[in-house]
Write a structure and sequence with these properties.
It is a single chain. The chain has 291 residues and is of the alpha/beta class. It folds into three domains: 90 residues, 4-hydroxy-3-methylbut-2-enyl diphosphate reductase, catalytic domain (Cobalt-precorrin-4 Transmethylase, domain 1, 3-Layer(aba) Sandwich); 95 residues, Rossmann fold (3-Layer(aba) Sandwich); 91 residues, 3-Layer(aba) Sandwich (Cobalt-precorrin-4 Transmethylase, domain 1). A four-stranded parallel sheet has the order 1-12-10-11, sandwiched between helices. A four-stranded parallel sheet has the order 3-2-4-5, with helices on both faces. α2 links the parallel β2 and β3. The model has no long low-confidence stretch (mean pLDDT 92).
Length: 291
């Protein structure tokens, strides 16, 4: 078994988890508040890993959806996750009397500021990424009229005589962003671009590319609802190696133990302990029984 040189939780995710736990601990001791959990809410799952979300809930940090925002958050700490939120949603939290704890990733905050700046200067803001992703929705909220594109073909359909600025979702692949940028630049040569891709994402992909050269198969550990974990899995497959995406060690298929050299990587929201459990199972030559 060999692990990738870079894997697992990124800076933004670690910061968000640490901030949420510290907030819950402080709130649990605050004078005058009920001693029963929850001690803090997170607006949506703090990270895209169900096991980590369940562990946070056990420690008093409970996820709440936008549709559940009501009087229950009044006077409560509500943690904004690393993806960030649109300004309208932040205003709603304030109007409900929530105590906002902002765990937005600094890189995402920078993208939000750039989007707002371009919009105020009359630019059409184009965001390269997944329109259903929380980060993208948050950035778009700072630039009314922003357009989200996921492919070069979608970018080619944009028509405007005014200035255009292009911002990338922090977790998009470099090559995807380059193709979208080139498509826009062909029709809009004065295009302004923002290099907002998080280096942590590319570092994990480069580490995976090095890993597959030394392994017969790859195990990717992470939540199935995590976009960057899914990209790691698809990258491993595209590099020609059998690849398995598992959330826990108990999901390791029997077939993976037939390989003599198995590599392990993990998405940016995967807890260290889950990676360690998978590695231990691979060394033992068997997956733990599911309970």
């Amino acid at each position: 078994m060999k692990r990738a040189a870079v894997l697992g939780r990124c800076m933004g995710v670690r910061r968000a988890v640490e901030l949420a736990l510290a907030t819950a601990a402080a709130e649990s001791q605050r004078e005058g508040r009920p001693r029963a959990a929850p001690f803090a809410y997170t607006l949506g799952p703090l990270i895209h890993n169900p096991q980590a979300v369940a562990e946070l809930a056990e420690r008093g940090v409970v996820a709440i959806s936008e549709t559940e925002l009501d009087e229950r958050v009044s006077g409560m700490a509500v943690v904004i996750r690393a993806h960030g939120v649109p300004p309208a949603l932040r205003a709603r939290l304030e109007s409900l009397g929530a105590h906002i704890v902002d765990a937005t990733c600094p890189r995402v905050l920078a993208s939000q500021r750039r989007a707002r700046d371009f919009a105020e200067r009359g630019y059409l803001v184009v965001i390269a990424g997944d329109r259903d992703h929380g980060e993208v929705a948050g950035i778009a909220g700072y630039a009314p009229g922003a357009i989200v594109v996921g492919t070069p073909e979608e970018a080619a359909e944009i028509t405007t005589s005014g200035p255009i600025a292009l911002i990338a979702q922090t977790t998009i692949k470099d090559e995807e962003y380059a193709a979208i940028r080139a498509s826009l630049a062909r029709r809009h040569p004065q295009l302004e671009t923002v290099d907002s891709i998080c280096p942590a994402t590319e570092e994990r992909r480069r580490a995976l590319a090095e890993l597959v050269r030394e392994c017969d198969a790859v195990v990717v550990v992470g939540g199935r609802n995590s976009a960057n974990t899914a990209r790691l899995h698809s990258t491993a497959l595209s590099l020609g190696k059998p690849a398995y995406l598992v959330e826990t060690a108990s999901e390791l298929p029997t077939s993976v133990f037939a390989f003599s050299r198995v590599g392990v990587t993990a998405g940016a929201s995967t807890p260290d302990e889950l990676v360690a459990e998978v590695e231990a199972a691979l060394r033992a030559g068997t997956a733990p029984r599911r309970v």
